[in-house]
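Quick start: read one record
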Amino acid sequence: MNRNMLLLVIGGLIVLVAGLGFYIYDKESKPDGIELKINESGISIQEN
């Protein structure tokens, strides 16, 4: 039972690190600056 708990904790940590890595990668990959969208409803400008 003790070994199973250790494997569960290690697996949880691996999932946590992978999720955090993906979150950081996603935040860093977005460009900084101004976002311009043109669609049917008009023009939208957002500053990042």
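Residues 2-47 form one domain.
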